[in-house]
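My main concern about presentation is that the manuscript never shows what a single data entry looks like. The format is easy to grasp once an entry is in front of the reader. For illustration, here is how one protein appears when written out as sequence plus structure tokens:
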Amino acid sequence: MDKNLESLIAKTVVDILKQKEASEGIKVGVSARHVHLSQADLETLFGEGHKLTPKKMLMGDQFAAEECVTLVSPSLRTIEGVRVLGPVRKESQVEISRTDAFKLKVSPPVRPSGELKGSAPMALVGPKGSVFLNECCIIANRHIHMTPADAAKYNVKDNDIVDVEIENSKPTRFYNVQVRVREDFNTEMHIDTDDANACAIKTGDYVRILNK
């Protein structure tokens, strides 16, 4: 195929995708249960000096790692094979769904990422050791990662609260969705598996922000 034609086709595809996103709104990413680890906890679980091995890049410098852990609740209920996300953080954090909470018999609060005071306890077990964390487990609030350019387009700023709507086979409106703006973000709304299953949403679907 002629290189000029290939270039034209590639540009057309990109333009179509951009127009689709502009007309349909903000892409959705369904977030499964996962764990963020501090360096100290990472080394306790996987061995001294251990570094996370990237499996799949997400947004910015964030990635899904090859490493997984087992969650053990105070009632000794377990969930195995929970993915670790990198890079390491200052504090370890566990993010689960309400369904997971029922299985584990814990009561985590709905919180923005990083707000761990008063959150639920959980033990983490890795191949080299285990840690028990008194405050680490949350159900992540619904939120939209957004670039500064898209924040300007939607007339929102970091930590604004918006309502969004999806029009599909089970039309749904989500209230009190937190906007998080950063240069290294991709514009994407994150919901957990419970919300996705209840509303027939899958990764790659689109929602729209309602007028403020």
